[in-house]
Amino acid sequence: MSNERDPSDTKGLTYASYLALDELLGLQRPRSDEHDELLFITIHQTYELWFKQILHEVRGAMGALAANESWRASHRLSRVRHILKIAVAQVDILETLTPLEFAAFRSRLATSSGFESAQFREIEALFGIRNARLADLLPDEKAREVVRATLQAPSLWDATIHWLSVRGCAVPSRLLTRDVSESYEGDEELQEVLLEIYRAGGEAASILEQLVDIDEGVQEWRYRHVKMVERTIGRKSGTGGSTGVEYLAASLRRSLFPDLWAIRDRM
Ligand code: HEM
């Protein structure tokens, strides 16, 4: 994280100045006089902050795996899992917004939508979802470039199988040299190796279970989001231009780490 300040200069530092509260609390700018719009803005901004933290932790975990510091990787992955739990729980707050309350200011959003969340697309890319079309649809050029670069780089799964290979697991070499910008759908030979890892137990099996937690956490978020959308706008199309619930429901069962699900019925 960049810090342009001199860390030894603490003169006059207060709670408010350390946290830049003047700036932070000035960033909620409703576009209507509707009471409920503040909640809508606050909750989206909170999500974006958690997205930022998830990106930081996942990149940190990947760095730790590359350095073969598995304890550190596990610690960071566990943090991601807890953040996802909060992300899911936060939907409860937004569900207190009734359809009529939302309709009172929805037109002020124009065509803006969570569909345009660059950090969400970056998270998906880090988790291995290779969908360049969604990156192309981001309105901001700089954000598009960041997401495109992430789509070209190794995913969390790539980092994990490299780490397993360094630990001596027989990961098929074609997976270690594959074009990481391509979608990965799972590999039966790797699944045999993963089964052995689970049967042996220990640290590697535990890290794989943390990935399952994360995968399930993202799916839980998708489910809670789409039900919240359905109860708030019904079958109306989205402000981002999609069919709304129908579009969102299509990704409900998308798993991030297909091998870890494929082996469940053989355990
Ligand atoms: C009343 C609240 C909300 C409604 C009605 C709503 C509605 C929608 C709809 C209809 C879409 C599909 C794209 C479109 O056509 O706009 C969408 C996508 C999305 N929304 Fe929301 N949303 C709400 C709250 C949130 C919140 C709090 C977040 C948190 C950041 C969020 C994040 C996203 C993301 C990341 C997508 C893209 C999902 C994907 O492409 O798989 N939404 N939302």
Gap from first CA to last CA: 42 Å
Strand content: under 5%
CATH class descriptor name: Mainly Alpha
Number of discrete domains: 1
Structural class comes to mainly alpha
Global morphology:
globular
Main sheet characteristics: none
Low-confidence stretches: none
Proper CATH architecture:
Up-down Bundle
Cofactors, ions and other ligands in the entry: protoporphyrin IX containing FE
Q: What Rg is obtained from the alpha carbons, in whole angstroms? A: 21 Å
Series of secondary-structure elements, N-terminal to C-terminal:
HHHHHHHHHHHHHHH
The overall pLDDT average reads: 96
Q: How many helices does DSSP assign? A: 15
**CATH fold field value:** Methane Monooxygenase Hydroxylase, Chain G, domain 1
Summarize the amount of helix as a percent range.
55-70%
What does this structure look like?
This protein is 62% helix and 0% strand. With 267 residues, it is an all-alpha fold. The chain has a single domain (35-105, 112-266), classed as Methane Monooxygenase Hydroxylase, Chain G, domain 1 (Up-down Bundle). It is globular, with a radius of gyration of 21 Å. The mean pLDDT is 96.
What keywords describe this structure?
single chain, mainly alpha, Methane Monooxygenase Hydroxylase, Chain G, domain 1, binds protoporphyrin IX containing FE
